[in-house]
């Protein structure tokens, strides 16, 4: 071939790739084939990085930087962007907010298989049919293959149908497919059969007003607080709003707390909406997660009910976002990229230009303030929906009363009366295990975790010790390790011990304990409650029982261990305790029978309890907001917490001191508190300290961090510690 070799034109543009590495920048690569173009943004690439290969996302394209000598090349994995417009922009926002590398934020947002570079999951449903050869061979087949062929001779069938018609059909199908007698084919995009939409109850006046207000607000961004006690019918309002959204041909995303996504909840949504409802929660396998993600991206998923991480789902046809129990702590991610799903959902709703409804019986103080300042429209449901009546609350002063497993005679009597009248009782204690401390009565020794500054919890009726902070376990000693005495006593009571005491006192009824010890899996909990039924009986439980799971015959809720929450150093402790009390109390009397709530305390005159009981949650919230304002705490200030841990406390302190200097050197006015010991100064063998940043405005806080973080990352002290930054921390 003659003529000069054509010189390859230098690539005009390079990719700026976000990689999952802890470096706050993008990395440039050249396409291995073809040219970089704007259509690449949002696609994944596989690139060499040092000696490794990484999967990242193209976040931008730009002319090559002349200073960079030889750019390495990467391979594009997607033919169309995976992270499209709004989602990529919202993730950029999150990276700026969390002061985290975009690549790590993207990695948090993507399901594992996509993070690892696998193709976008298939969302087709699959069918099976006989081939020509199969039709000929069919009469000669025997056994299970024959029965499968019989079914397919009538009609081609989808996999769900086969599963109901023939047990272990897959093996037979594989065998026949190996001989090319049957074949698998993709059905039209999955539209799992949905039941006809069932009609719900007629809305009461307040519910109707709420639905009307949502309708009147139209389709653009508009935040709402739907504020109503448990059982006031908030979910009915969501269902109407979602139905409206579906009627407009749009997608709806519903976020629920980790323990709120029960099979019951899903069933209710499925039965009422008449479209498939996709669920996303921590119990799903990687495959299911990836399929749901793909179904959202393709617009096939119309309604998604999910926990925290569902806030990252792509919503190309978004129409509505709902956050149920918006105050719930499980919406905040406590490690890695520390985001709050509620706050990020608000960012997304704004970017998507759709309405967002925050629902709660006990709204967070942040949200209440946004409602009272007019930033959110405030919709209230004051009455319980339907026929249910509000429970009667009684405070039981247990000072000087004889207690058994921490339970007073009045409590036992109230349980007995409930059982006599055919009802069920719930005894709530937010502490699992047998007892929180093992103590030597002779010398005062107590069992401490060797790796944490915390006592070990007694389990298994006193035979085992377990640390709830690092998971360490060991058998309980028979004799005191210090004095050799035999007077070891389990102090205090957890759910196990309460269960034991109640079972001994009420041997004729079932006593069911629900906590993380008895129910690792969410369907296990439902199974246990189904067996428990509605006959007279006693439930003992932790926070896991505070919501979800309708308990129609629950007549009494007795709360013990209130006092532990009354005197905590955490400024959010009163808010959390008030929310928990209201939520648990709300479990009583959901059906026709009015419920009763018994609060057992040594501090009946504590202002928190008095305000809560006499004025309800809103009176408490008003008072608490006043205190927060006076003390300069959120929502009247904005906080960020820098945490550091190391084997040596000095190293953690040295790092935080240097970080403090770097922040001060920015010249931006900011309050800096610390370094201080963390609430648990030693955990799993690490010494922990923290530096608190506080400002009355959000902007200077972020400006100071933006200015100081490059220097902080480069500190020599940073190499000797593990450190992290938490903007808007919820546990200080
Ligand atoms: P929330 O979400 O506020 O706890 P739900 O929407 O779950 O309340 O309603 C509580 C119970 O009351 C449910 O069993 C629901 O079916 C019923 N309910 C809700 N609204 C009405 C209504 N307008 N009329 C009759 N029953 C209702
Ligand atoms: Zn001793
Ligand atoms: Zn420990």
TrEMBL record:
The keyword Lyase does not apply. Its cofactor is Zn(2+). Its EC number is 5.6.2.4. One of its GO terms (cellular component) is primosome complex. Binds 2 zinc ions per subunit. Initiates the restart of stalled replication forks, which reloads the replicative helicase on sites other than the origin of replication. Recognizes and binds to abandoned replication forks and remodels them to uncover a helicase loading site. Promotes assembly of the primosome at these replication forks. Component of the replication restart primosome. Belongs to the helicase family. PriA subfamily. PANTHER family: PRIMOSOMAL PROTEIN N (PTHR30580). This is Replication restart protein PriA.
């Amino acid at each position: 071939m003659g003529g000069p070799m054509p010189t390859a034109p230098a690539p005009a543009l390079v990719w700026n790739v976000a990689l999952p590495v802890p470096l706050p920048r993008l990395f440039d690569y050249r396409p291995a084939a073809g040219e970089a173009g704007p259509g690449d943004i949002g696609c994944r690439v596989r690139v060499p990085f040092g000696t490794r290969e990484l999967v990242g996302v193209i976040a931008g394209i730009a002319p090559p930087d002349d200073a960079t000598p030889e750019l390495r090349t990467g391979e594009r994995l997607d033919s169309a962007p995976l992270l499209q417009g709004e989602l990529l922009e919202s993730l950029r926002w999150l990276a700026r907010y969390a002061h985290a590398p975009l690549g790590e934020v993207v990695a948090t947002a993507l399901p594992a298989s996509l993070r690892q570079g696998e193709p976008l999951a298939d969302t087709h449903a699959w069918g099976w049919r006989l081939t020509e050869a199969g039709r000929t061979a069919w009469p000669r087949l025997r056994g299970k293959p024959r029965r499968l062929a019989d079914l397919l001779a009538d009609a081609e069938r989808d996999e769900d149908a086969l599963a109901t018609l023939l047990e272990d059909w897959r093996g037979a199908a594989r065998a026949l497919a190996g001989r090319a007698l049957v074949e698998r084919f993709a059905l039209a995009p999955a539209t799992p059969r949905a039941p006809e939409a069932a009609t719900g109850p007629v809305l009461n006046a307040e519910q109707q007003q709420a639905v009307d207000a949502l309708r009147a607000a139209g389709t653009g961004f508009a935040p709402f607080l739907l504020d109503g006690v448990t059982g006031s019918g908030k979910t009915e309002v969501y269902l109407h709003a979602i139905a409206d959204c579906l009627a407009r041909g749009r997608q709806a995303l519903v976020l629920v707390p980790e323990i709120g996504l029960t099979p019951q909840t899903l069933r209710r949504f499925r039965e009422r909406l008449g479209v498939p409802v996709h669920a996303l929660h921590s119990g799903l396998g990687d495959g299911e997660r990836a399929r749901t993600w793909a179904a959202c991206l393709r617009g096939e998923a119309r309604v998604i009910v999910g926990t925290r991480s569902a806030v990252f789902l792509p919503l190309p046809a978004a129409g509505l976002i709902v956050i149920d129990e918006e105050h719930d702590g499980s919406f905040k991610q406590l490690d890695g990229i520390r985001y709050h799903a509620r706050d990020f959902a608000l960012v997304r709703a704004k970017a998507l230009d759709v309405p967002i409804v925050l629902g709660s019986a006990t709204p967070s103080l942040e949200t209440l303030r946004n409602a009272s300042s007019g930033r959110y429209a405030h919709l209230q449901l004051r009455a319980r929906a339907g026929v249910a009546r509000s429970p009667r609350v009684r405070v039981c002063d247990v000072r000087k009363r004889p207690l058994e497993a921490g339970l007073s005679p009045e409590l036992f009597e109230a349980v007995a009366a409930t059982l006599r009248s055919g009802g069920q009782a719930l005894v709530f204690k937010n502490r699992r295990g047998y007892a929180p401390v093992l103590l030597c009565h002779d010398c005062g020794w107590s069992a401490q975790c060797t790796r944490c500054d915390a006592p070990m919890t007694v389990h298994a009726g006193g035979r085992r010790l377990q640390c709830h902070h690092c998971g360490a376990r060991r058998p309980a000693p028979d004799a005191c390790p210090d004095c050799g005495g035999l007077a070891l006593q389990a102090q205090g009571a957890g759910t196990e011990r309460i269960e034991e005491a109640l079972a001994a006192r009420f041997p004729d009824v079932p006593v069911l304990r629900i906590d993380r010890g008895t129910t690792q899996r969410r369907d296990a909990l439902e199974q246990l409650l189904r067996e428990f039924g509605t006959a007279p009986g006693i439930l003992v439980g932790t926070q896991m029982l505070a919501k979800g799971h309708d308990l129609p015959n629950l007549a009494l809720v007795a709360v013990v261990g209130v006092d532990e929450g009354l005197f905590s150093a955490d400024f959010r402790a009163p808010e959390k305790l008030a929310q928990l009390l209201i939520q648990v109390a709300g479990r009583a009397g959901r059906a026709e029978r009015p419920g009763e709530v018994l609060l057992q305390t040594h501090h009946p005159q504590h202002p928190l309890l008095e305000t809560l009981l006499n004025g309800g949650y809103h009176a408490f919230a008003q008072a608490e907001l006043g205190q927060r304002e006076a003390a300069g705490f959120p929502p009247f200030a904005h906080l960020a917490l820098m945490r550091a841990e190391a084997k040596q406390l000095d190293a953690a302190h040295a790092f935080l001191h240097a970080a403090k200097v770097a922040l001060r050197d920015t010249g931006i006015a900011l309050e800096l508190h610390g370094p201080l010991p963390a609430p648990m100064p030693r955990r799993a063998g690490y010494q922990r300290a923290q530096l608190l940043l506080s400002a009355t405005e959000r902007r200077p806080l972020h400006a100071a961090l933006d200015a100081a973080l490059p220097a902080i990352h480069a500190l020599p002290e940073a190499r000797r510690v593990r450190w992290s930054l938490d903007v808007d921390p919820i546990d200080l």
